[in-house]
Amino acid sequence: MTERLVRTYALWREIHNHFPKKSRHTLGRKIDGAFVEMFELIFTAGYLSKDKKLPFVQKAISKTDLLKFFLRVAWEVNDIGEKKYVALSEPLDEIGRMLGGWARNVESRTQPPAR
User: Fold this and answer.
1) Closest by Cα among 115, 109, 113, 114 to 51
2) How far is CA 2 from the centre of its chain?
3) Can you tell me the distance from the alpha carbon of 58 to that of 103, in angstroms, rounded to the nearest whole number?
4) Pick from 49, 70, 82, 83: CA 20 to 30 A from residue 8's CA?
C-alpha cells in the first residue's frame, strides 16, 4: 500500500508542477498536505501495537476520502484534466479499499470474542 501511495504521490507532484498558478498555493497545497498526512498516518499505524492502530488507520481512511474530494474539486474547476484526475483517483480508490481491509482486520483482532 505504501509503495502505491508513493507512486501516486509522485504522479501528483508531476501534476502539481503544472497546476494553475491561481490554485497552486490553495487547493494544490491542500492536496499535497493530505498526501503527506496520509504518509504519516500509515507509517505510524504500521509501528503501533494492535490496540492502538485503529484510530490511525481510520484517520488515514478519512484523509483518503478528503484527498479524493479535493481532487474532484480540482477537476471540476478545470485545474486538472480528466485523464490526470482518473490517473490519481483510481489508485486512491484502491488504497482506500486496502485501508478499509486493514481497519476491518485490526477491528476483528482487537474485539473481544463473542459469547
Assistant:
1) 109
2) 10
3) 7
4) 49
- pLDDT per position as a tens digit, 73-101: 999 999 999 999 999 999 999 999 999 99
Q: What is the CATH number of domain 2-110?
A: 1.20.1440.60
- Predicted pLDDT at 109: 84
Q: 21-41 burial string, b = 16+ CB within 10 Å, else e? A: eebeeebbebbbebbebbeeb
State yes or no: pLDDT of 111 exceeds 90.
no
Contact between 52 and 33 (Cβ < 8 Å): no
Q: Work out the angle at residue 44's Cα, subtended by the Cα atoms of residues 43 and 47, and round it to the nearest 5 degrees.
A: 95
Q: Helix or strand or coil: residue 86? A: helix
d(CA 72, CA 82): 10
Q: Are 50 and 18 in contact (CB under 8 A)?
A: no
Helix %, strand %, coil % of the chain (to 5): 85, 0, 15
